[in-house]
Amino acid sequence: MSPSYRLVLKSGVDAGKIFPLERSQITIGREHNTDITISDPEISRRHAHIFQQGENYIIEDLGSTNGTSVNGQRLVGPYILRPTELITLGENTHLIFEAVLMDPDATVAAIKSGVQAPYPRARKPQAESNPPPYQPANISQTSYGYAGQVPEPPVPARMTGKRKITPWVIVLIILVILFVCSCIGFIIFDALNLYCEVPGIMNLLIPGACPP
């Protein structure tokens, strides 16, 4: 059985009065033509509006002077009510929003009735069995072929000093330098045509190549 909902007045001379929410549109205010009339000078003539949307009841303020609050928070727009929440109209008028499972044999007063109806008997919820205490599963550690601690990966050996240059490398470097210098000298010698500038040397190499 789906629960029914009601408002229970918790303040003022009519504290304890029950207002069953039996309509889809309910207006709360100080005027006598409202659905729920509460005589409090701090309440506006048309103070708040409660309407049903699906299985929910939604409350919104109708631009009242002193405002409407739920659980101490002033409404700035429509708000979905939840059971046991406290509705405050103005400063001193408090109502509790309740959900109850109605007994079909119980009688409730209409919203406009001035007679306070007895509280319908709410069915006690079935006692929930306490779940067994959580016990962590005994998960055995998977063996990966190591006994004890897993060995750390080998650390690469650090270079402790500079590489030594062998004598053969030094000789090779000197030969390369001499070869490059010889090539450069030959290119310059040939470009400037200096063969006969020193005739003795050329005639020594090639007899009669240069005139004396």
| Low-pLDDT ranges | 108-115, 139-148
Distance between the termini: 137 Å
- How many helices in DSSP terms? 2
Radius of gyration, taken over Cα atoms and rounded to an integer in Å: 52 Å
Mean pLDDT: 77
Alpha-beta classification: alpha+beta
CATH topological fold name of the domain at 4-100? Tumour Suppressor Smad4
Order of helices and strands: EEEEEEEEEEEHH
Going by CATH, the architecture of the domain at 4-100 would be Sandwich
Assembly annotation: single chain
Shape: rod-shaped
Share in β-strands: 15-25%
The largest sheet has its strands arranged as 2-1-11-10-7-8
What's the helical proportion of residues?
A: 10-25%
- What does the main sheet amount to? 6 strands, antiparallel
Structure, described:
There is one protein chain. The protein is of the alpha+beta class and 212 residues long. Among the domains are: 4-100, Tumour Suppressor Smad4, CATH 2.60.200.20; 167-205. It is 15% helix and 22% strand. It is rod-shaped and about 145 Å long. It starts with a strand and ends in a 7-residue tail after the last helix. Residues 108-115 and 139-148 have low confidence and may be disordered.
Topology:
Blueprint: E1 4-9, E2 18-20, E3 25-29, E4 36-37, E5 48-53, E6 56-61, E7 68-70, E8 73-74, E9 79-80, E10 86-89, E11 93-100, H1 167-191, H2 199-205
Parallel strand pairs: 3-4
Antiparallel strand pairs: 1-2, 1-11, 3-5, 5-6, 6-9, 7-8, 7-10, 10-11
